[in-house]
Specification:
The protein is an all-alpha fold and 115 residues long. It contains 5 helices and no strands. Helix 1 runs antiparallel to helix 2 and helix 4 packs across helix 5. The longest helix has 24 residues.
């Protein structure tokens, strides 16, 4: 008797999941996909791997697809991810600068030069 071994079973997609995968393939950002379909990133990227959908290279979403496939990201995707991370860090610094001194978190009081 021969038995079939199915490594990954493809689950049936809902309409919104199918639309989300199409938007991902077409290069839309994750925030836009979530707003339009309600499918969040923690659900989107495993579905994309399961169904063989990838985002365009050179995008943050492409980097996340590489990570979901557990492979090393290509150079354009790594650069896009680095740019997005730097942008988030800069926004956080600007937001922290707008907070009054009395409400800022008390980490290091100041930088001291070590000689």
């Amino acid at each position: 008797m021969a038995t079939s071994v199915i490594l990954h079973t493809r689950q049936a997609l809902t309409l919104m999941q199918a639309v989300a995968l199409g938007l991902l393939r077409d290069g839309f950002k994750q925030r836009t996909i979530t707003a339009r379909t309600g499918v969040h990133g923690d659900e989107l990227y495993p579905l994309a791997v399961l169904h063989g959908i990838t985002a365009p290279c050179g995008t943050v979403e492409g980097h996340d697809c590489h990570e979901a496939r557990e492979e090393e990201p290509c150079t354009p995707c790594s650069h896009a991810h680095g740019r997005a991370h730097a942008r988030q860090h800069a926004q956080r610094r600007r937001m922290l600068g707008a907070v009054p001194q009395s409400l800022r978190p008390r980490g290091r009081e100041g930088r001291r030069a070590v000689r």
